Structure formats: C-alpha cells, structure tokens
Automatic annotation (TrEMBL):
Protein family membership: Belongs to the short-chain dehydrogenases/reductases (SDR) family.
NCBIfam families membership: PRK07791.1
Lineage: Bacteria, Pseudomonadati, Pseudomonadota, Gammaproteobacteria, Pseudomonadales
Source organism of this protein record: Pseudomonas ulcerans
Gene3D superfamilies to which the protein is assigned, alphabetical: NAD(P)-binding Rossmann-like Domain
Domain of life assignment: Bacteria
Protein name: SDR family oxidoreductase
Coiled-coil region list: none
Domain Ketoreductase: residue ranges: 7-192
Entries under PANTHER family matching the protein: DEHYDROGENASES, SHORT CHAIN, SCP2 DOMAIN-CONTAINING PROTEIN
Keywords, ordered alphabetically: Oxidoreductase
C-alpha cells in the first residue's frame, strides 16, 4: 500500500530539481500534491506530468514570502483536496559573494526567500493544525524544511545563504518542540543533489556520470527520505536534521557542548588563552583551524 494515500503535500520550488523529484515521489506514494513555483509554466508542467500518470496535483505560482500570498497557496490546496498534511519548504535562491562584497539586496533577497519563505506557509498551516487539534480532530502533520551543509558547516562565498540555512536548522528545532503537542513533527534536510543552483555553483562536481554508473547527484536519490518523513510512519521522528546525498543518509549532529575546562571558579583574563588552547587541541574539528 502506498504510504501517503489520502495525504496532501505542498512543495515549494517544485518546478524542477529536488522539488520536482519530491513531487513525483509523493504522487507515486498516493499523495495529492500542490506544486508551487514562481515559474508558473514549470509548476504546471510538473503538475501535468503527475496528472497524466494518474496522480492528483495542482500548480501554484504564488509567492511564498508574504502571508497573504502564502494563504492563497493553502486555500487552493484546501479547495482542491480538503486538507493539507505535509509542507515541504524547498524553494531557494543563491546570491553568492564574499562577505564584504555582499550588497544589502544580496543579503535581503536570500533571507526573504529562505527564512521568511520557510516562515509564511508553516505559520499559516501550524495555526490551522493547532486549531484542529484543539477542536479534537486528530492531526498527523509534517513540516520538512531545507537546510544545507553550508548552514551546518559554513561555506566561503555564501555568508548570506549559510546564515539563512543555519537559521532554518534552528527554526526546525523550535517548531518541533512547540508543535509536538498538536500532532505536528518538524524535521530538516541538508540535501546534496544536482539542481539549477548547484549546477551554476559547481557544474563539474554535480554532472551526470558518462559511464552509466550510479548517479550520486541525482535529486531522485533524496526523495525517498522526504516522502517517508511526510508519511504517518515517521510520527516518532522530530527535531532532526538529516543530510542526504546519493545512497547516504546521515544525521546532522549540530552544535553541542564539546571539550570543556571547568576550574570551579571564575577565570582570570591571563588564564583564558591557555585554557582555550587546551580545549582546541582536544577538539578534532577545531585542530584544522587552530593548527593551521
């Protein structure tokens, strides 16, 4: 039995790349799919592809970065399918520059699309799911956000993108904690795949293999994890960040308390340098910078 029968999913940025792969995979598992993309023709093409194969889908080109336009996406989903059970926040943009070369416009656009784009639909749907739960209607809803390796580890030339993606990882933790009582889980992905963004940033790295070998950068490789997270089978998994690329699924460990020095009293300024040096010497990830 398909694991998403009767469930409705909204996927942003679904006109190509990872979003398209997610949409096709959800449809194959019985979901009703709302294909959102600012490129109206691309959204319609993916929706048409799903419908032609016997699935159920509608296209939306409404903006995800305002509450009013995000509400139109939700309203269209409700009108077509009756309820929304899953949100996949996938849409994104790049404006890569070294930090001191970033314009205000470069910064604001990336923050708006990534961070505010993750806020608007989730806020509208979160309020809906809360109200349903409080009214006694069982809720098994899912928020699936998109972070990035750049957000977890930083990336030279992508300070705006890295900051936004790191913010999304933190947002996911808060959503998971706050919404659990209403039957909502929130998880994030840090996917690595061939998309319009990665092809523009590192075309030689993500190109298709010419020898017919396993295509580790195919976006379809990430889709099964996303579909499973969107199903009712994933009810016990929340507040996690998963990295996925090729045939690999990893759990992002994130920031946590690491090597510690505790003298049991306040540190004097002249003592701090030696303490920090000792801490960094024991921290494997820090050695690359400290020892360079």
């Amino acid at each position: 039995m398909a694991i998403c029968n009767g469930r409705t999913v909204i996927i942003t940025g679904a006109g190509g790349g990872l979003g398209r792969a997610y949409a096709l995979a959800f449809a194959a598992e019985g979901a009703n799919v709302v294909i959102n993309d600012i490129r109206a023709e691309a959204a319609q093409d993916v929706a048409g592809e799903i419908v032609a194969s016997g699935g159920r889908a509608i296209a939306s080109s409404d903006d995800i970065t305002t509450l009013d336009s995000a509400q139109r996406i939700v309203d269209a989903a409700l009108a077509a399918f009756g309820e929304v059970h899953v949100l996949v926040n996938n849409a994104g943009v790049l404006r890569d520059r070294m930090f001191i070369s970033l314009s205000e416009e470069d910064w604001d656009l990336v923050m708006r699309v990534h961070l505010k784009g993750h806020y608007c639909l989730a806020n509208i749907l979160g309020r809906r799911w809360r109200d349903l739960a409080k009214a006694g209607t069982p809720v098994a809803a899912r928020i699936i956000n998109t972070s990035s390796g750049a957000g977890l580890q930083g990336s030279i030339g992508q300070s705006n993108y890295s900051a936004a993606k790191g913010g999304i990882a933190s947002l996911t933790l808060v959503q998971a904690a706050e919404l659990a009582r209403y039957g909502v889980t929130a998880n994030a992905l840090a996917p690595a795949a061939r998309t319009a963004m990665t092809e523009s940033a590192m075309p030689e790295v993500v190109k298709r293999p010419e020898d017919g070998s396993f295509d580790a950068w195919a976006p379809e490789n990430v889709a099964p994890l996303v579909v499973w997270l969107g199903s009712e089978l994933s009810a016990k998994v929340t507040g996690q960040v998963f990295e996925s690329q090729g045939g690999r699924i990893s759990l992002g460990d994130g920031w946590r308390t690491g090597v510690t020095r505790d003298k049991g009293a306040a540190w004097r300024v002249e003592e701090v340098g030696a303490a920090v040096e000792a801490i960094l010497a024991e921290a494997p990830m820090a050695q690359k910078v400290w020892g360079s």
